Amino acid sequence: MKDTIDAVKGQGEALTGRPQWQALSLHAEGLRHRQLHEWFADEPDRGERLSAEGAGIYLDYSKQRIGDETLRLLIDLARACNVESRVAAMFVGERVNFTEQRPALHVALRAPVTESIMVDGVDVVADVHAVLQRMGDFADRVRDGEWKGATGKRIRHVINIGIGGSDLGPVMAYEALRHYSDRQLAFGFVSNVDPVDFHEATLGLDPAETLFIVCSKTFTTQETLTNAHAARDWCVAALGADAVARHFVAVSTNADGVRDFGIDTDNMFGFWDWVGGRYSMDSAIGLSTMIAIGPAQFAQMLDGFHAMDVHFRDTPPERNLPMLMALLAIWNNNFLGASTLAVLPYADHLKRFPAYLQQLTMESNGKHVTRDGTPCDYQTGPVYWGEPGTNGQHSFYQLLHQGTRLVPCDFIGFCQPLGGADALSQHDLLMANLFAQSEALAFGKTLAQVRAEGTSEDIAPHRVFEGNRPSNTLLADRLTPRSLGALVALYEHSVFVQGVIWNIDSFDQWGVELGKQLARRTESELAATDTPDLRHDSSTNALIRRYRAARNPR
Ligand code: F6P
Predict the structure, then answer these.
(1) How close is the Cα of 220 to the center of ligand 1, in Å?
(2) pTM of this prediction?
(3) Which residue of 100, 294, 305, 486 lies most exposed, with the fewest beta carbons within 10 A?
(4) 227-242, pLDDT tens digit by residue?
(5) 31, 71 in Cβ contact below 8 A?
């Protein structure tokens, strides 16, 4: 407890005024012209030395623009910011979500049943396993056809309705683990309040074979409730009102909201306010994942998460993957001036992983004031974005290689293909591209090399690659439920460490509220039959008037 009090007190000092921050600024200035090829020439063992491994994931960070001294200074900064005691506080369920006075206990969602974590006198690990047991029973019944629709047909289509963390985790995990899924079942994900999302997801489906999982932590989210009502209307129109009980289940913390909507709370799977939406894919929010891959493989995913949790909690910073990833992100963002970070999975199954990470990272660390409300005089969370390789190579990689901005990259790859030996040669090609890209970004191609190829003088500058563009490479043996869990936990914890250093609350999301409020007011103006008295700014007023004039052509 004393540690936590000291930690919070310690965080009161301005970050940029800390000697450790200033030492890093000076150090960065001294390294401004240092090139990656020089580091590699001076340190023959760099490629293997600047690496770390944990929970089945290998991190090569040798292509970052750092030396041993940089890492030492970054770890000093982390220590000065009391990262270690804040991590310990998170693991034991202290209210690290300061503005909402809640723990952030996603680590409890994957803790083994033998562990116990107490929140307000309750062992939350026991609660987690009770819900997992109910989810497992239900998932098995859907998978083996015992759970039938209202007309007695078995379920063939499962549609998850949710948004943000109640969608991005489930859809990312489903895509990532498709290889392990029951192909007799088809999965759809409806998130957008745009009516075409629901329409397209249900087009051609038989309501009698369709199960909806309505996922909403709060059960008040406008988009989700609107789509859930559309789904209920669609179901009731075909099967009658009594069918709702066989075709709808809910995942929520809000039993009253679920009941009011008309779903029997016997068909509700609960979770808790100490699970943040963007940290919830391994809670009951993962019910669609569990139905897809089965309870046993879901348990393997939880094991992967837990293995990374243990690594994060128990490994010294020098070998701690989430800590290293966080410190490198801080270095690139705050000392080298990079404002974005590209996530480039060389695995088509991870196509939704960058979108998932966007919520995890940017909703967590897109903050402008410190814990005591002081404006941050340094950059906080960078913009995360990305696409799977090799596709991205044929679109935006041009800018990564020759643009004027520094864009650090996280390359993610797997050593074994999912298709077995038959897919090996094509997988080799995929991975050759990954390794080639990080090499090209780091070492580039000089003017002399371009000239030596016989390129004419006028074209030669266009064919130069400056290099010195930093990247991490993350490798796991194979994309499995376990490695996916470890990968997600790696980013979760990296986000938290960054937030601790920036002295912000990584677990709230007040920045989404204003737009929600304004939309509620605007919605009634768009559909008003009388001419509404618009009291927005002149731009918004004009846009609303134009929309109203054109919205319903007859
Ligand atoms: O508006 C942002 C947000 O609150 C996210 O944090 C959350 O994941 C999402 O909306 C969905 O919320 P809910 O699960 O309560 O519907």
Answers:
(1) 9
(2) 0.96
(3) 100
(4) 999 999 999 999 999 9
(5) no
